[in-house]
Structures are given as structure tokens and as C-alpha cells.
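Feature request disguised as a bug: please show the residue count (150) next to 3-hydroxyacyl-[acyl-carrier-protein] dehydratase FabZ in the output. Example input:
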Amino acid sequence: MSTTVMDIHQILKRLPHRYPILLVDRVVEMEKNVRIRALKNVTINEPFFMGHFPHRPVMPGVLILEAMAQAAALLSFASMDQDPGDDTVVYFAGIDGARFKRPVEPGDQLILEATIDRAKAGIYKYKGRALVDGLVVAEAELMCTMRKIA
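Example output, currently without the count:
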């Protein structure tokens, strides 16, 4: 059984995303400035399954990448020396080397991993992986930027 480093209430305080686009349910491991391990429980109730695909529900790859980016954003915020405030968000800036190894289906527990490759001047580069049952289902290099919003 995993311990909880951040529960859904703490995640909601940090990320601006809300249903149906909030894709991180819990953070189970985090090492400041290094790595994060979070999870997303995938259920048939997800709105995207109505159209992707009605006869064989599969989580869209772009949402798996978004889930990895949200986990990475949580790591970025946790790694800061001081709280950036509620007016700071992390935007997706780029993706390289995205690969999808197998479909993610209802009932799967998606484990999201991100490690910081580089952080400089509010721009972060991560290596991300998504796993189900210990097998890699997707991986990518993610680039995000932290910005104040008006």
C-alpha cells in the first residue's frame, strides 16, 4: 500500500485544473528537485470514453501526456524555495520523443513518473513515464514553463 505525499485536497490547492481535466488523484512519492510519482485511477466514468472509443474504451494518448505534465507541475511547485502564490501556473511548452507502448483502459491505475532533467529561469525539462501494472505504457520528454497570470 502506498503512502500519500499529497492528497486530492492539496493537489486542488496547487493545480488550477478541475474536472474533467484534472488527471492526478494522488502523489505517492516526491523528492524535491528530483522526481515525483503520482497516480490516476482510470474509470469508465471518464467523459472521454464516450467517444474514444465506444466499442473499445481507450484513454487518449494526449491525456496521458497531460497527466504526466500535471505531475511534473506538482514537482516544480514543490521544488521551489518559496510558495509562488495562487497566480502562478505551469504551462506545457513542448514534448519530444513521445512513445505509446500499450493502451490504457478503464480499471487501470496509471502511475505517473517525472524526473527533472533541467530547471532554469522558470523553464523545466522532465523525463516522464506512465506505467500500468509495472509496465511502461507511455514515455516522453516534457518541457514546461512557469508563469504569473493576471
